[in-house]
């Protein structure tokens, strides 16, 4: 997934408010092209939205859309909607709409009417629902503790591992820390409101029961951490050229075995590897079986820690591999996953409770929406 797609997905996470799920499975690694970029957790609603985004992208690649654009959204008196007489600012709608439509704007393509209608309706629907919840929270005297909000914000930032990644995410998603805190505060307020209205509190016993019934989900496959030196061979290389690359690979393998330390191998990789991990000393980090091309995968998992391989041929060229660490297959213990299970179960229960609450509030509310006909 390219970073702009990641940023758009992360924006959708913020927009969707209530969501949590385990990270998606990682694809096979292309040793010739892959870069060691960590995935951002994707929740269920983002996954559901991805097909629509891909569909939208396909539209932008095809012929011009011969449809008259929808009228611009101008609202009424600076508002996009009113809920029980309380206005929702047009600017709130515009900020979210701009993020949803950035793919089309970047490609200078018109937005198909059906997609545009869906964007507009879904954004206004969410804004109205948030306003209904905010009004109910105020009536119920629900307030968010600033310390709890800050703790949630720190957890959110921790997903990005480093300050640099978080800053890059903010820049690419056109978000601010204040905006993220605002969304987190809405989530907290909803959670407190549902608890006050009698929502179900997930206990440790509930989490333990879920773990017992779904233990297979927590199996971790055997993993290896390795460094490698890649010497590329062109697709149209002659036998003599292939032999020359192999000879150099043999020399490097012999040199690595003669001075077999992790530091020495890393320096050899920095100086000689033609792969994208060369600046990091050829470090591929941990990977499970079947992540790498077959020949590389089979060799790496047959080696002992600290062992240096003879040159291994793949479609990318010749590799010299050094296994740095191994992690045996295991089942993650309950204590390790308890918090994530509780969060999953709470979010699942809250989604149902939230929808029930919205249905009740909407039935007795006066809602005016100012989208063009």
Task: Describe this structure as you would to a colleague.
By secondary structure, this protein is α+β, with helices and mostly antiparallel strands. The chain has two domains: 3-215 and 334-369, Porin chaperone SurA, peptide-binding domain (Triger factor/SurA peptide-binding fold); 222-328, Chitinase A, domain 3 (Roll), CATH 3.10.50.40. Helices cover 53% and strands 12% of the residues. The chain is built from 13 helices and nine strands. It has helices at 3-16, 44-61, 90-100, 102-107, 113-139, 146-158, 163-173, 177-196, 204-213, 239-258, 262-272, 294-300, 334-364, and strands spanning 79-83, 86-89, 219-220, 223-232, 283-288, 312-314, 317-327, 330-331, 367-369. Strands 5-4-7-6 form a four-stranded antiparallel β-sheet, sandwiched between helices. A three-stranded antiparallel β-sheet has the order 2-1-9. A two-stranded antiparallel ribbon has the order 3-8. Helix 1 (3-16) crosses helix 7 (163-173), helix 6 (146-158) packs across helix 8 (177-196) and helix 9 (204-213) packs across helix 13. The chain is elongated and about 80 Å long. It starts with a helix and ends with a strand. The relative contact order is 0.14. The model is unreliable at 1-29 and 32-46 (pLDDT under 50).
